[in-house]
Amino acid sequence: MMRLNLNLCILASFLCFLCGNQYADATERLTEVIYPPAQSNLDKRDQDFIEILHMALKKTEATDGAFIIRPTKLAMNPLRFHRELEKGNEPNIIWASVTKQREERFLPIRIPLRKGILGYRVFLIKAADQKKFSAITSVNQLKQMKAGQGATWLDSDILASNGFNVEVGFSYEGLFKMLGIGRFDYFPRGINEVYIELQQRKNQHPDIDVEKTLLIYYPLPKYFFVNKENKYLANRIERGLKIMIKDGSFEKIFMKYNKFYIDAIRMDKRRIFKIDNPFLPDTVPLEQKELWLNLLQTADK
What we know:
This protein is α/β, with parallel strands linked by helices. The protein has two domains: 26-115 and 221-263, Periplasmic binding protein-like II (D-Maltodextrin-Binding Protein, domain 2); 117-217, 3-Layer(aba) Sandwich (D-Maltodextrin-Binding Protein, domain 2), CATH 3.40.190. The protein contains twelve helices and twelve strands. The strands form four sheets. Strands 5, 8, 9, 10 and 12 form a five-stranded mixed sheet that branches. β6, α8 (154-161) and β7 form a beta-alpha-beta unit. α2 (47-59) crosses α11. The longest helix is centred in the N-terminal third of the chain and has 27 residues, at 2-28. The protein is globular.
């Protein structure tokens, strides 16, 4: 009997040791998350991604331990960031529009970070051209005008694949200058980008304004992507995002950054042109309606 009790005590001590070690592993692990920095001093487009990422890590801190989150020390163009991520260098996470190629190249976390809001595209134009745009009643008329987009942006390929006339630029800030000097007629922007971009550059480009009557829509989710071997980080962030969706903190951050723009865009006053995104993989969870923003009321194509 005494031997049995002794064995039970030893077993209990061993189990406590294991549990203690597992807890220590979780609390002592330090997760370092390194993301791409802004593309210019005026570039504030990605603040919500950073806040979402921080919150997802915070939601899993009790189970997975502490974390550090910081930008890369070096500035690079997006293509270079992607190459470095693929090689296992800094950054170890990016946020990017979803394509079949990126899903094959990286490990995706399949939760649309902005609920697809970037797919609602309005235009920066020269204010003097508003009458020209107000007269447009079909997508074919719009295709006769020239759109400006970044050379590495998926939007350039989406527009071109749908028959739009696209002029590309290699500098984010340079695109605003190109619009101002007439290199193209309009600069499609996400509804969550356009007003802050205009406000920040009003002094440099006083002749530019937001077009008031048109909107292009195509499905354009953005995901977090990590290196294919970094399954731990992908799992931790995915768990954190799901907790955020369930407890409402994901929606709270989304509305914090986007409610003003959703209201300001006046969808009821705009002619909507729906176009295809041929680069969208079949794995995108379009059927999960709770993950998406739905502003569509009418659609003219």
